[in-house]
Specification:
Helix content is about 5%, strand content about 60%. The chain is mainly beta. The chain has a single domain, classed as Outer membrane protein transport protein (OMPP1/FadL/TodX) (Porin, Beta Barrel), CATH 2.40.160.60. A 14-stranded antiparallel barrel has the order 1-3-4-5-6-7-8-11-12-15-16-17-18-19. A hairpin with a 5-residue loop joins strand 3 and strand 4. The protein starts with a helix and ends with a strand.
Length: about 400
């Protein structure tokens, strides 16, 4: 098989797997910022480093640091566990591990200052199942959101120390939602699919060998999910659609390398969640049914350290503080957002032909919801998630 055939086959395989996987969100609404073990191990503080093909997600300008043609494939595995307690009862989500792949390809364009990249990844995702017998089953039982981005990028090395990049995103998404109507014996459900487009951009500036600055931007998108719904067993299935806004976000990072073996980075990640006001299910058996969210803008504070160990090996640790974006008044148990603390650790190796990396991270947070418009959702929520990511890079 020639190189073109190999790349095409791997990309198509990864895209197919991605489309049939649902993944669990980890706060900051339904964003999924964990896209590569080297980034995850550093608390996702990677925008000013971005020196492997996953830069396509973390900062596309970083692919100008990739030497030769490189194909990187990763697998993210997460177990999401949230518990609920109140005077009305207790509940817990299904913590069965879920997985989703990532794939990135980057290469220089011969005899030009340009670089090309292509990524397939899931920047948003949610899959939670509370079961049918919770105190809040008329608010939510289960739901899943799959959002797969196909993202070609072009990066330009403007000068030795400065690179910029831009690329469109074509985003395929599937959504499912289930809730009781009056008891565990009946149910309203919706299933839909849609496509939206957007773009990403990045800047990487290294004015001094010890200092590097990075900016990563992702545009807002909107997807109109067209499918069907049913109020079972009272009404027949019928065509329904619902539009969902996905917010813009921007990440700024600064990396400091006091010596060649140390890299310390801090990133500030801002998401315009205020754009996400409500989701309206149109043309259901009950007419137009709104789900009010009224999200608020939020930040993630990300810090990471990497130490080179010699012979191509390295180790990293990281920490993230993630602000809650969901107000009490319109909280939904399907997106149990909270102020979260995330810790991470990872190891890896870079070689002449192959690179590999592995990372583990956890997320912990608690919140007590009071004054929710849906009173049955009031109560105490505790989240503890565990996740692993493995990735390997083949250098052609």
């Amino acid at each position: 098989m020639n190189k073109k055939t190999t790349w095409t086959g791997v990309i198509l395989f990864s895209a197919t797997v991605l489309v049939f996987c649902a993944i669990s969100a980890q706060a900051v609404g339904f964003r999924l910022p964990n896209q590569d073990p080297e980034g995850i191990a550093r608390g996702n503080a990677f925008a000013a480093t971005a020196d492997n093909p996953s830069a396509i997600y973390y900062n596309p300008a970083g692919i100008t640091q990739v030497e030769g043609e490189q194909l990187r494939v990763g697998l993210y595995v997460i177990s999401a566990d949230t518990t609920y307690s109140s005077p009305g009862g207790k509940a817990e989500t299904d913590a069965t591990p879920q997985m989703v792949p990532q794939i990135y390809f980057a290469a220089p364009l011969t005899n030009t200052p340009l670089y090309f990249g292509f990524g397939v990844y899931a920047p948003y995702g949610l899959s939670l199942d509370w079961g049918k017998n919770t105190p809040f089953n008329t608010v939510a039982e289960s739901g899943s959101l799959l959002y797969a981005s196909f993202n070609p990028v072009v990066a330009w090395r403007v000068a030795k120390s400065l690179s910029i990049a831009w690329g469109p995103t074509v985003n395929y998404s599937e959504a499912r939602f289930y809730q009781a109507i009056s008891s565990s014996a009946d149910q309203f459900w919706f299933k839909g699919k849609g496509i939206g487009v957007g773009y990403t951009a990045g800047l990487l500036w290294q004015p001094h060998p010890q200092w590097s600055f990075g900016v990563n931007y992702r545009s807002a998108t909107s997807i109109d999910y067209r499918g069907s719904s049913q109020a079972y067993p009272y009404f027949a299935e019928q065509s329904t659609h619902a539009s969902v806004d996905f917010p813009q976000y921007i990440v700024g990072g600064i990396s400091f390398r006091p010596t060649p073996v140390w890299n310390l980075e801090f990133d500030l990640d801002w998401t315009e969640w205020k754009k996400v006001r409500q989701i309206v299910f149109k043309n259901t058996s009950f007419g137009n049914v709104p789900v009010v969210l009224n999200y608020q803008n939020s930040l993630m504070y990300e810090f990471g350290i990497t130490r080179q160990l010699g012979n191509g090996y390295f180790a990293s640790v990281g920490y993230i503080y993630s602000e809650n974006s969901s107000p009490d008044t319109h909280f939904t148990p399907l997106i149990p957002d909270a102020n979260l603390h995330l810790g991470s650790v990872g190891i890896g190796h870079r070689g002449d032909r192959w690179d590999w990396a592995a990372a583990y991270h956890f997320a912990y947070g608690e919140r007590t919801v009071q004054g929710d418009a849906n009173a049955s959702a009031n109560g105490h929520y505790k989240t503890f998630n565990n996740a692993f990511n493995l990735a390997g890079t083949l250098k052609f």
